[in-house]
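ok so i was messing around last nite and threw this chain in just to see what happens. nothing serious, just curious
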Amino acid sequence: MKTKLTFIIAFSLIFTLCMTSCNIIGAPSETESGVNTVREGMTVEDIDSLQIDYIRYGSYLFLSCNGSNIVARISSDDHSTLENVKTYTAVSPTDSDFEKIEKGMTVHQVVEAVGLPEGSFTHGTKSLYFKTTDGNVFIVYFYNSDTVSMVVRSTENQQ
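result:
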């Protein structure tokens, strides 16, 4: 019994020391990473160093941090610096949410209404695709990658 207790205490101590040293070595802590850190003036390389997954679409960067959706425009001057960084509440869109998307809406307005895209799978035409909680995929097409030209329901729920 005494040996088992000693082992548990030793294991807990080693585990705690290991976790503390990982943060000291360079893994970002909760206060260093995420939504409060992504800001205008950062570069795409800065985001890479935070080890946050993102989707890059033309001159936009989409990422999710701590329950928030973030959209940033990438500067056309150096193709790296973030500008116009906006944070939105994370959304799990339904099919009916896409009825809110109107011609002329901006990328920011689309993300605010239906959440982050899953990606872009077209060539030549600027578009983003979104999956809904209803099991469908919607494709939002953009004029010059900035404003909505049309929304298409791409697949139907196979359930």
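not much to say yet. The longest helix spans residues 2-25.
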